[in-house]
Amino acid sequence: MATPVKERAKPRPTAEFTPELVYVEPGALEYPKGAEIFAWVKESGIPYRMTTSHNRITNLPGETELEQYKIAKRTLVIGVRKTLTFDQSKPSAEYAIPIATGCMGHCHYCYLQTTLGAKPYVRVYVNLDEIMEAARGYIQAREPELTRFEAACTSDPVGLEPITGSLRQLIEFMADQEHGRLRFVTKFHHVDSLLDARHNGHTRIRFSVNSHYVIKHFEPATSRFAERIEAAGKIAAAGYPLGFIIAPIIWYDGWQDGYAELIAALARSLPPGGVPNLTFELIQHRFTKTAKSVIERRYPRTKLEMDIDKRKYKWGRWGQGKYVYPDEQAHALRMHLTEQIFAHFPGATIDYFT
Ligand code: SF4
Fold this sequence. Notes:
CATH class: Alpha Beta
Pfam families: SPL
Helix content: 25-40%
Mean pLDDT: 94
EC number: 4.1.99.14
Organism: Paenibacillus sabuli
Shape: globular
Low-confidence stretches: none
Bound molecules: iron/sulfur cluster
GO molecular function: 4 iron, 4 sulfur cluster binding; DNA photolyase activity; S-adenosyl-L-methionine binding
CATH topology: pyruvate-formate lyase- activating enzyme
Number of domains: 1
Distance between the termini: 52 Å
Oligomer: single chain
Keywords: Lyase
Number of helices: 11
Strand content: 15-25%
Order of helices and strands: EHEHEEEHEHEHHEEHHEHEHEEHE
Radius of gyration: 21 Å
Largest sheet: 7 strands, parallel
């Protein structure tokens, strides 16, 4: 008689982010959102300190740089966004809309490790009305062309949504903009508060997904694959335009099977009738020399392959270039992913491979 397969306990849901330490800019408390978040901090008994500026958090606890980094990832700063000039965000959108900076996730390859440098703490901006007014100006300047705003360039805003509620407001603001569109990408599944938001089809939500191997080895402190997919199903059912970003696409032993399984798992998990207007964005793994040295310090045991001798150097427009896969490998990754995607999702669009 066959031995009964022991039933696996269902893993616990990935918890919502609760910071261990909070810094507050006094000016932030003059905004309703700042006052509300601060009230929640006090009610929750989270230790807090006042700070003169969200750009100058100098006294983080921790003896070593690594300890401080880990604590920073669990530190929330409630601030006011003073710079209301938006950065460009090619190729996925025209502009990055700044509602938060920093992330509690620990993805080894994350580019925020270098772009945020010594400021890896999580900042949320409470002057959302001013940020939305700035967005309105950008939209008007480009009319009648559409202007797309990416809300996840410097953070993972879904992971912060239970604290800020900013995405919901932004979604409803963009629903009323004939020429404005919002998009964001996430590795978190905390989307329930967005499901009944009035979106008017103007917000595209994308989930960042990857093979089992990549998620297991390189994406600690984010929602599990199954949670992201369940959330994607809810987003599709709520009528939002939906997409997936597969990034970073990594070459490892068994990558063909890993990525084939990923696409098959997506197809199994989505509504049987399919998702209209589904998009994919494909980004191969790349790193700079600076990123490599930061990652090796922060995640000294990472299995992330960053051997510059195995890579192709791609010149950067603004200074430091990046190491990508050599053309032959990049081509193989692109072809395999493309074939798998169109085999399972014949109506989908691949926006880009980079
Ligand atoms: S979830 Fe996204 S923003 Fe956060 S650490 Fe991972 S890659 Fe970076």
